[in-house]
Write a structure and sequence with these properties.
3-stranded mixed sheet; mainly alpha; 3 strands; globular; 2 domains; 408 residues; 17 helices
């Protein structure tokens, strides 16, 4: 393979790794780096006539993107829906990461993500402990704009850092330092969906490692933690089991609204970015619980990824998303068994488990910051198993397509 632009490719990798780390601190800076990485990546692909390789899960994502465009064409407001579809370009992070972060660069990228994640966690801890961000009305959000995005990012980095801690034979000190800070910051956000996601991700990692004794002790550790936690944290944890809790009641009401949207628009949904309009105009139920300071409030989304996708883009979109999830999990387990990037592969599966669990209560898959980091993390194991361009041999079982191959 002729490599005419190795320095350009190296710069593209640095920009991409910086983006995946910086996205935890600032969307503006991360998007600039992502744009730079994308432009340089295209330059290299075109100049060197690269045949790209992608994980198999990329194809359901492509299908989801195409169906999203169809849904936009039949939307309540096509113009507004097509504007929202710009987010689909983020799916290109998958082929970018596969090419730019291959081999040892994948582990280096994970280190950048953990390092900046730990820095963001420290900011949140300071906010909670010293700046009064210690209640439901004012929660730690790090340097990001919203506590929900912040908690989702912490959850994903916990998956990566905990996997590195469990599966690294050496250089485990840094993850060991980062994990406690990440966990403390996550608890301080009061975000129950991310708590659930992180706990199930840790359970998944313990199962990968076959640490059955720790797995048996984990429920006891959680109960003990709740008992000794500050009153606000303990009350927040217990409220998840309270059917009269206002947030829980509103979540159920939103599921009813989503069900009605799906029943009326099963094929293409109400359209991307149209759920708030449809909700307030027709589908808000009488048992919806508005914030005390916002009577007759709308909803930005339905706080449930599967319901949101089906209501917004139709049942075919939900089916494609489910295929994406299953294909990604199968592929990551395959990479874990091959043993070339066990920590990254286990962390990728944990990230999917966390996304799914938290996504039952929050539309995290629709959050651009979350999506950028999530797609990067689940692609890194496949990139790690790809040899550097100078010595790369044909894939064991490539699926040839025009100028594009699938990494099994």
């Amino acid at each position: 393979m002729t490599r005419a632009m190795p320095n350009v490719e190296r710069a593209a990798f640095l920009a991409l790794a910086g983006c995946l780390g910086l996205i935890q601190l600032t969307i503006f800076g991360a998007e600039i780096l992502l744009d730079v990485a994308g432009i340089l990546w295209l330059v290299v692909v075109i100049a060197e006539r690269r045949r790209l390789t992608v994980p198999a899960f990329f194809w359901p994502l492509v299908g989801l993107a195409l169906w999203t465009l169809v849904s936009s064409a039949f939307s309540m407001d096509p113009f507004e829906s097509f504007k929202r579809d710009r987010q689909l370009l983020l799916y290109l992070i998958v082929p970018m990461t596969m090419m730019l972060a291959r081999g040892s660069r994948a582990a280096a990228t994970a280190n950048v993500i953990i390092a900046l994640g730990a820095a963001g966690a420290l900011v949140g801890i300071v906010q909670y402990a010293a700046l009064g961000y210690d209640n439901l009305h004012q929660r730690p959000h790090g340097l990001l704009g919203h506590y929900m995005t912040y908690s989702g990012m912490l959850m994903l980095v916990i998956c990566t850092a905990a996997a590195q801690l469990q599966f690294r034979d050496r250089d485990w000190v840094w993850p060991a330092v980062a994990v406690p800070a990440l966990l403390v910051a996550l608890v301080a956000t009061y975000s129950r969906n991310a708590w659930v996601g992180a706990v199930l991700a840790i359970v998944t990692l313990l199962m990968f490692r076959r640490m059955w004794k720790l797995l048996a002790i984990l429920p006891v550790a959680i109960v003990l933690f709740v008992l000794v936690a500050p009153t606000g944290i303990r009350s927040r944890a217990m409220s998840g089991f309270d059917p009269n809790d206002a947030t829980n009641r509103d979540r159920i009401a939103m599921l009813k609204s989503g069900k009605a949207m799906i029943a009326d628009h099963p094929w293409t949904g109400v359209g991307p970015n149209m759920v708030p309009k449809a909700y307030i105009e027709k589908y808000k139920t009488p048992d919806a619980v508005d914030p005390e300071d916002k009577p007759n409030d709308t909803r930005a989304h339905l706080h449930n990824v599967p319901v949101q996708l089906a209501a917004e883009r139709g049942l075919p979109a939900l089916a494609l998303w489910l295929v994406f999830v299953v294909t990604a999990v199968v592929g990551l387990i395959g990479e874990f068994r091959r043993g070339k990037a066990r920590a990254l592969a286990a962390g990728g599966v944990a990230a999917i488990v966390a996304m799914l669990a938290a996504g039952m209560f929050e539309h995290n898959f629709g959050d651009s910051e979350f999506l950028i980091l999530f797609l990067g993390l689940i692609t890194l194991p496949f990139a790690a198993a790809t040899p550097p361009a100078e010595t790369r041999e044909p894939s064991r079982d490539p699926v040839p397509v025009p100028a594009l191959r699938t990494h099994a």
